[in-house]
Amino acid sequence: MEGHGHGARQGGKAMGRPAAPLLLLLLHLAAPSSPCFTVLPDASTNLNLTNRSQLCAELDWGLFQRQSQLWLSHNRIEALSPSSRLEPGLEELDLSYNRLRELPAAFLSRARGLRHLQLQHNMLRELPDGFFANATALLTLRLDGNPLRAVPPTAFQASLHLLAVPCRCDVVGSVLAPCACSRPNCTVPQCLCITSQHDSFNVTDFHAQECRRSVALVAGSVGAAGAVAVLVVVIAVVVCRQRKASAAAVGAGWSKREPTAAHGQPRYISRTTEIGTSDAAAAAPDYENVFMSPCAATAATQGWTPGWQEEQHSPQGPADDDYFLESEADPGDQPIYANTQSLGEDNIYIIPNQ
Length: 354
Description:
The protein is of the alpha/beta class.
């Protein structure tokens, strides 16, 4: 029994050893993540925490309740806790050069005393329309270095003196109207756009020099494309009409192509009215255009002998004659008109049996 108890105790120790590391791991996972900063309860109201964190996935804003000036730039802050709210006593906040993609919609809902807000060089793509509605004391607002599409209209409080945005046509275009002075003795904030090389321009001048030129180029390209399209349509219509006219002329015109003769020659017969004859039905003599080709080649190919070289005709054509003439038309007084294909040849008129 004693040996059995000793073995049991040994077995209990062996089974209990891996439980301690597992318990520590579970406690570590269950413990809240460490804050990005350590802020003492009696910390100064002017708190500078610039470049104090290598990575801050989510900043707990509950640490900052009594500050009037707070600098948190260059800390790689990726997000703020959803419940983050500025206290009315905070006058200046610097969150520049972090990785913020968005801000809580109610982040400035109690920021009545905020005068200077620096959000430049983050990753903010948009801000809610009413984001600055309660920041009624705002003097300076830095938004440059963000991929913003537009600035909310509520940013233009009556107290605003300086606004900085990125030099991009979309965001610059969203602030042109409130940054322009259209009435005498009006006061507007100084609106600047800042490039990635830290060059600054007046937003009105930048828009006139860069954005309107781009719009003009786009409009010119669209206009040119439209003109080309119209030209193509006009050309297509003209070509179509010409083809229709040509088809009509061929159907009612001077010549008609007859089926190929038995010996393979194309035949063209012209029929027209006599010039100067008022009676359209009065027919002029028919003229048959007979294709001329080398005699030897055609005879060898088709295996026939031209009728004018047969023995019953006299005189016989010379054996080495280069061209022949053959007609399958009915004999009679109808003349046959033959065009030779060689330049300089005279036109030949032949009447059968004559």
